[in-house]
Structures are given as structure tokens and as C-alpha cells.
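We examine the record.
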Amino acid sequence: MKPAFAVAMATLLVSPVVEGYAQDTDSSLTIVAAVRQALAVHPGMRAAEAATRQASARVGEFTADRFPSLAVDGSLMRYQEPMLVAPIHALDATQVEFNQTLIQGAVRLGYTLWDGGARGAAIDGARTREAVAWSQYDVTAMDVTMEVADAYLRVLSASEMLAAHDDGLAALRVERDRAQRLFAEGAAAAIEVLRAEAAIADAEAERATVEIELENAQHHLARVLGIEPEGFNPQDLRAITLRDESIPNRDTVAGRSSASNLDLQLASRAVDAATWRRKAATSSWFPRLDLIGGYLLFGSAAGNFTAEWNAGLRVSYPLFVGGRRNRAVDAASADVDAAQHRYDAVVLRIDEAVDRAVGAARELRARVRALTRSVEHTAEIARIEQLAIEAGSGTQAEFLRAQASLRRARALLAQTRHREIASRINLARLAGELDVAWLERELESIP
């Protein structure tokens, strides 16, 4: 049975995908719409879906061994000397016929009554590998969702950081114009103009770095959405925020991860698949019992066709194969051990990842709160310094420092806020809950 998450993702894949991002009537691109489009066009999803089809076909291939086999064969042979046309069943010369051209045909029926559990192990192993393929499909879907969300948040962060730098540059240019006017009137020294120009140059250098970061993030997002970067407008993205900003509980996240983490499920199913391979290898130590039968036709170029049937039981058992069976069982047992150790390693890795992710979420929540207060205070300081310099009681150096601090604080707040959202998405990935429904439930798009 396909996992519920995989069914949901498969539904998304068959939903129509339109050009551009025409998911919303206002042409904006929400993070949910971006993820849906990426899931529909990402080559990783298509490859994962093809792997599930292959695994399902393999189940049918191995299940076919449960049914009888029916085969037809025929031959037309020319011999140098006359050969016996049909088997002799009695010492009757009238039944004996020789001919150089023999015609033979047969319909053969076979069915394996017992093979030591080889077929059952092969079928169960194929079903386990099908479950592994669906788990890998789910893992790929979550990875694509993570990739899209990361790119989306990077674009938002860079856009807000660029806006903060533009606002800061606008304030600095106003100050430069003021200094130039006062210098022209002889009421200010040339150093004030130079100081303002230096501050603008510093701000422009920082802005250039952010602008390249925005361009790279924009191109990355466009690629995962399957659209041309030139036709992508970062202004179409909708800002997002967390609906619930409360700190996640470590034990709760760890419990969900141990129950639903897809990497853990994938490792567990890999252990099951290895176990079935070992059982299939062990079955080679048992004899094989087959029911066989056929309808045989004999004739020659002269005609005189005759037919007969046969049926019976056949037992086969290899007495010596050079130690191949032992080596096959040993290899399969080692594969089981390796799969189990990989599972244990995944458990350790997930526990460590949960600790880091919960710690990062707590840290980023505290940083967002602190940086929000910092921006508020720095903005007030910059406002007061601007009023003071306009009134002639302040100093230009203090005003420029306040503007630089405000610009950088706003940029850092935007970046940290989006890193916090990314950390919550990572927690959902660890808990095996990350899908479109989670994004719609936990994130809120801001018009």
C-alpha cells in the first residue's frame, strides 16, 4: 500500500501545471504554490516516481512465479540417416517408422510445489523494496520541499536586506545633499561632504553584495520551479511568517521523529529487504519439487503424426556447488548486519539533528526578539540624530553611525527571521511532517 504522503504527492504530480506561477489570481507566488509547482516539474520527483513504478513491476514479476508455467515448442530437423519418428512402446514392427525429416512439437506444463520458501522470500523482498521505493519517493518530495522553501526564504531575505540598504542609502544621500549645500554656502567644512560620500560608498558596497545574493537566490528558485530566471520577479513573492512562534519541545519533536521520520523508515525497510534476501539465499539448501506434464506430437515429412502425454513429479537438489550456497548465505547475513548498523547510525544521526534543530530554533527565536528591539531602538536613535543635525545641535558622524547601524540591524533582522522559519521547516522534515498541508497550516502569507 502506498503511504498517505506519497499518495498526496502523486495527486500533486498529476495536477495541471501552468506556465509561470499562475497559481494565484493576483499573480503573486506563495510558498505553497512554489512547492506545488516544483513537485510537479522537478526531475528528482519524476525519477523517484519512475523508481516506484519499477518496484511495483518487480513485485508482479516475482509474484508470477506462484502460477503454473505453460510453454509450447516445436522443431523441424533433417538428419543424414533416417531416424526413429516416434517412441517405440511395443515390439511391433508395424509401429516402427524411420524418416530423415522429423517434426516434433510439445505443450509443456510445470508448477513448483515447493522450493524451500525461495518464491515467498523473493515476493516479500520485492514488496519490501517497493515500500523502500515509496519511502524514497517521500524523502525526495520532502527534500524538494526543503529546497524550494530554502530558496524562497533566501529570496525574501535578500529582498528585505536590499530594501533596508536602499532606505539607508536614501537617507545618506539626503545628508550628502545637505552637506554639499552648506559647504557651498560656507556654513560647513569639506570634510562633512567627504564623510557623507564615504558612508554612501560603504553602503553601496554592502548593497552590491546583497544584490548578487538576491540574484543567485532568484536564479536558484527559478530553476527548481522550472521557469526562466529572466521571467521571474522576486517582487511577486509573498512574505511569510510563523503562525505559532512558541518554542518546540525537544521531547515532542524526538517522539515524532522516532515514529515518522522518513529516513528512519527508509533504513528500517532496508533491514527488512536484507532479511528477505537472506531467507531467499537460505532456501537454496532445500530441495525443489516440481509438478511437470506435457502433450507431445511426433511426425515426419511423410505425415503419420502421433501424439501422447506425460506427467509426473521431479525432485532436484544440487549436491555440490563449490561452497556457493554457504557464501551466498554469509553474504546475505552480512548485508542484514550492515543494514541494521546503518539503521542504528540513522537513529543516532536523527537524535543529534533533533538536538541541533531544537537548539537552533530556540536561539533564532531569542535573536529575532532581541533584533526586533534593536531595530526599534536604532530607528529611534537615527530619527533623533537626524532631527538634531537638522536643528544644528547634532554631529554628522553620529548621524552616519546611526544610519549604518540601522541599515545593518534591519538587514540582520530580515535574515534571522527567515532563518527561524527555515529552522521550523527543518524540524517538520525531521518529524516526517513536512508537506504542503504543513506549510499551509504553519505558515501565513502576508499580502
